[in-house]
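ok, trying the design again with the full structure, not the truncated one.
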């Protein structure tokens, strides 16, 4: 276990953090805690057979109600639909040196999927891909909310994401959805060619991760995290507390975002749940352009 940042950061840094309205509770999460959170949440083995993360993988998002407040996303963080209406504002990693075969030039790919689409009790679209993009590299900066974490970003001219971001909008009363984001090292061939070059299909529903890894020649994820959106009751899992880091003590303070209430205006029951309305899609693309611009410029 690492010392909490609130205990180890000099006061001057804490002051700086609050001026910029960053997450002043952010603290490192050990790779073991990531691993345990994936087991406690049922993601392992329900969705993926195993997770043995080499690195701690984080995202940063803007909390609702205070659009200037950046929060570190840790395993089990509970988000509202609005808080993930755009991509996270940044991705970052700790202990990258613990991953094998990493150089300064290594590129990475990241996805976002819904393991519980269209509903937790009946996830017939599992896994539903919301986003997939390659060509991430270290951009030489550290996270705006966790100073020990190195930022990953897509440089200009990285090409479009293979799957453009579509904002999660799970149906009301479809249970607690687990959204997984995972980080892989990118095989060198994809530095100059997209994933379609090895036959990957655009279809986003029923994405088979093990088949995909074989197709792309990927090793296991070097890091992964997840957040939940609680849409209300569904087969007994809708109202249960998300089983993330909260249940291991010590980290509950990071997960202070309101669950519930979100998704109530979304009553589409089609199987392709989160990607259906073209208006939603357009919003997603617009959001992508905005966030993507941000990633490039910083
Ligand atoms: C390093 O990675 C291995 C898995 O590759 C993991 O078991 C171990 O806990 C990691 N160590 C640290 C300090 O993150
Ligand atoms: C919050 O951000 C918005 C634009 O993103 C800006 O207009 C506003 O001044 C900021 N508020 C504070 C308190 O920094
Ligand atoms: C509730 O979640 C647990 C763990 O994710 C799973 O094993 C169980 O089958 C779920 N129950 C229902 C009714 O969906
Ligand atoms: C950025 O993160 C790296 C890796 O943890 C660390 O060595 C470096 O000191 C950090 N830089 C700053 C300015 O905090
Ligand atoms: C993703 O968005 C970009 C930019 O809007 C667009 O050029 C590209 O065609 C989109 N990709 C797919 C697969 O729709
Ligand atoms: C290490 O990475 C390089 C460049 O991506 C690749 O060519 C090589 O096969 C990798 N080696 C191993 C053992 O994974
Ligand atoms: C990475 O970027 C190059 C252009 O620099 C592009 O040709 C390639 O398709 C991209 N790879 C992925 C996986 O997006
Ligand atoms: C995913 O693909 C693998 C390998 O092709 C296959 O063995 C497995 O049954 C598939 N899983 C599902 C849920 O279709
Ligand atoms: C969703 O639609 C069904 C059937 O049209 C209706 O009974 C239900 O009240 C609606 N739920 C919400 C949350 O609007
Ligand atoms: C083994 C190792 O590198 N551990 C480091 C992981 O990252 C944290 C935060 O940067 C360090 O405190 C550990 O020493």
């Amino acid at each position: 276990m690492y010392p909490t940042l609130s205990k180890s950061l000099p006061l001057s840094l804490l002051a700086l953090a609050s001026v910029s309205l960053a997450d002043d509770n952010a603290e490192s999460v050990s790779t073991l805690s990531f691993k345990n959170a994936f087991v406690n949440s049922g993601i392992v083995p329900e969705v993926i057979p195993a997770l043995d993360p080499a690195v701690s993988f984080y995202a940063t998002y803007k909390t609702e109600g205070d659009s200037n407040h950046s929060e570190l996303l840790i395993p089990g963080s509970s988000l509202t639909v609005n808080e993930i209406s755009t991509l996270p504002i940044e991705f970052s990693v700790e202990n990258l040196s613990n991953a094998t075969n990493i150089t300064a030039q290594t590129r990475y790919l990241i996805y976002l999927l819904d393991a519980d689409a269209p509903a937790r009790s009946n996830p017939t679209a599992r896994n539903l891909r919301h986003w997939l993009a390659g060509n991430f590299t270290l951009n030489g900066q550290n996270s705006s909310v966790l100073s020990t974490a190195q930022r990953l970003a897509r440089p200009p001219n990285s090409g479009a994401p293979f799957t453009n971001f579509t904002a999660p909008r799970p149906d009301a009363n479809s249970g607690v959805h687990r959204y997984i984001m995972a980080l892989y090292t990118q095989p060198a061939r994809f530095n100059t060619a997209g994933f379609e070059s090895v036959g990957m299909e655009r279809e986003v529903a029923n994405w088979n991760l093990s088949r995909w890894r074989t197709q792309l020649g990927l090793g296991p994820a070097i890091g992964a995290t997840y957040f939940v959106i609680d849409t209300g009751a569904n087969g007994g899992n809708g109202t249960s507390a998300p089983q993330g880091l909260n249940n291991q003590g010590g980290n509950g303070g990071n997960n202070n975002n309101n669950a519930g209430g979100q998704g109530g205006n979304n009553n589409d029951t089609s199987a392709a749940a989160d990607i259906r309305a073209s208006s939603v899609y357009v919003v997603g693309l617009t959001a992508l352009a905005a966030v993507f611009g941000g990633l490039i410029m910083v």
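Keeping the full-length input from now on. Confidence is low (pLDDT under 50) at residues 1-20, 246-298.
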